[in-house]
Design brief:
This protein has 184 residues and is an all-alpha fold. The chain has helices at 8-25, 35-42, 46-52, 56-72, 84-101, 110-132, 139-161, 168-173, 176-181.
Length: 184
């Protein structure tokens, strides 16, 4: 079956909207950014914005997801095993993502950010667990990936709460044996 190509104009317009939003977010708090601000900055009309995004919260969700995926993009996650190196790399990417957001407008949107991080981690862990266990679909592995995603995200929140005194890899390394081998 032939794969449909996306019109380059659509991709360009979407990028204009996202770039405008990111630019505005460095100047204003999220709650003060309007669709009008974004359309003015991107030099598009309102209908064009709504062609690409349902509302400003959909845009926020997509922008955060895309930025997080860029941070998590690595050949390491194509591995068949959840190793110490993989856990350290994922944890470091998550903490770097959170640090980069701390200078932007997203303060106060921890629930949204947390949900996006956990959703992306769940997908990564589930794919890796399926490869590791040579299966395509397993409810137990799905639950395991949820537990891992919440655990890694929770550890990153704890790392931030503790003032980021240790480096992310130092912070997570003491827990890795339990992540890999369980609680025994």
């Amino acid at each position: 079956m032939k794969e449909a190509k996306t019109d380059p104009r659509i991709l360009r317009t979407r990028k204009l909207i996202i770039d405008a939003f990111i630019e505005l977010s460095s100047k204003k708090e999220f709650k003060h950014i309007t669709i009008k601000d974004i359309t003015t900055e991107a030099m598009i009309n309102r209908a064009t914005f709504y062609y690409h995004f349902e509302d400003i919260y959909d845009l926020l969700d997509k922008v955060l997801s895309e930025v997080l995926l860029v941070n998590l993009n690595s050949d390491l996650y194509e591995s068949d095993n959840l190793t110490e190196e993989v856990f350290v790399s994922i944890f470091t990417a998550i903490t770097n993502f959170q640090k980069s957001l701390s200078t932007r407008c997203y303060r106060g949107y921890e629930d949204t950010i947390g949900r996006i991080i956990m959703d992306q981690l769940e997908i990564i862990f589930y794919k890796m667990l399926c490869k590791q266990n040579k299966t395509d679909d397993d409810e137990g592995l799905r639950i395991h990936s949820v537990i891992l995603s919440w655990g890694i995200y929770g550890a990153s929140v704890e790392w931030r709460r503790n003032g980021m005194k240790a480096s992310p890899d130092e912070f997570i390394k003491s827990a890795i044996p339990y992540l890999i081998n369980g609680t025994n």
